[in-house]
Specification:
LD_TPept_scaffold_dom; L,D-transpeptidase scaffold domain-containing protein; 15% strand; two-stranded antiparallel sheet; seven-stranded mixed beta barrel; alpha+beta; 14 helices; 11 strands
Length: 354
């Protein structure tokens, strides 16, 4: 069986989402079957299939997890103690299911279309250190298989609220995981995807969500929110910074939030009207008005000078256009028109098998 598994991984390498991860997974268990066992032996194959059936509840697309290969009738046949089935057939099904579960874990952790962590990068070097193969191995021996697998998700409140509402909308309310997502469900799905992007990589103490005009300060075990006022010119400038790899820092100066980012500030912001600049500053700052600025300044202050409070605080810009408040989906203005393309990508892009 070990030789058969090794041969089938190589044979189907181009059809797998994470071929190197699949290879590492089987190498680590001695190239043994992970899912296919006699029907008298308890394992998590059915749990995994059921989980993949309802990936829509996690804002993902069922079509991206080998649905044509992973059939319940095939699983029953392969596990039957009376049917005569070749080792090759068992190995192929086992490999498909392993690849689907590794893809599901990585999609929950990184997002399916994370611009900084595409599947190829994750497969080669493991992305930000998250180890989907180790997590899958641990889940296979766990009594709480689903909990172990889905622990890959972000832990932020906004994400968990969206996930719960998605579960209600696609599971309890409709009782149909395959119903085509309506507008509200699509909005929740694309924002869950973005929140996965933001959850990996370096964490920052402060975030500004552009569509909602809200600054969030992460303080110990709680979050404190501040409303911002942004001009049209400011929004144009922030679009240049959104998704940039250049570090951005935040300061609070005489009632204003000031963003610094080199070299993007110099390249894109200096000629925009409506943006006030501090004369003589080496990096031209972007000013945003903040309500309750004294409270924010006190919260973030590390250095206090007469009539000026300056804080060099690492900042992350986010683009979340929907969140759950009081059990209701609140939608924000899609300022930059990014929702449509991401929606189409999530629901219409399916891996082409070569």
């Amino acid at each position: 069986m070990a030789a058969v598994i090794d041969l089938q991984i190589k044979k189907h390498q181009k059809e797998l989402y994470y071929p190197l991860s699949v290879m590492r997974f089987y190498n680590s268990n001695g190239n043994k079957l992970a899912w296919i066992a006699p029907d008298t032996v308890k394992n998590h194959a059915t749990d995994a299939m059921l989980l993949l059936d309802c990936v829509l509840q996690y804002g993902l697309n069922h079509a991206n997890y080998h649905p044509g290969k992973l059939l319940y009738d095939e699983l029953r046949l392969l596990r039957s103690s009376t049917a005569s089935v070749s080792d090759e057939r068992k190995a192929v099904f086992d490999i498909w299911l392993t690849d689907a579960m590794l893809a599901f874990e990585n999609n929950l952790h990184y997002g399916r279309f994370n611009p900084n962590y595409p599947a190829g990068k994750i497969d080669v070097d493991g992305g930000d250190g998250f180890n989907s193969t180790a997590m899958l191995k641990a889940a296979l021996i766990s009594e709480e298989f689903t909990t172990a697998i889905t622990s890959a998700q972000p832990k932020s409140k906004i994400y968990l609220d969206l996930k719960r509402q998605m579960y209600l909308e696609t599971g309890l309310y409709t009782n149909d995981c395959y119903e085509f997502p309506q507008k509200g469900i699509q909005n929740m799905a694309i924002n869950m995807e973005r929140l996965r992007w933001y959850s990996v990589g370096e964490k920052t103490p402060v975030e500004i969500n552009i569509p909602s005009h809200i600054l969030t300060a992460h303080v110990q075990d709680s979050d404190i929110y501040f409303n911002l006022k942004m001009t049209k010119a400011t929004l144009i400038a922030l679009e240049k910074l959104l998704g940039s790899s250049a570090p951005i820092t935040l300061s609070v100066l005489r009632g204003q939030v000031i963003l610094y980012s080199l070299p993007l500030i110099n390249d894109h912001l200096k000629d925009l009207s409506g943006i006030s600049l501090i004369g003589g500053a080496k990096d031209l700052p972007l000013h945003i008005s903040v309500l309750k600025s004294k409270k924010l300044a006190k919260l973030l202050s590390r250095r206090d000078f007469p009539q000026i409070i300056v804080n060099d605080i690492p900042l992350k810009l986010t683009y979340i256009t929907g969140e759950i408040k009081g059990g209701v989906l609140i939608s924000y203005n899609d300022i930059y028109g990014l929702d449509r393309d991401l929606t189409q990508t999530l629901y219409q892009t399916v891996k082409k098998i070569k």
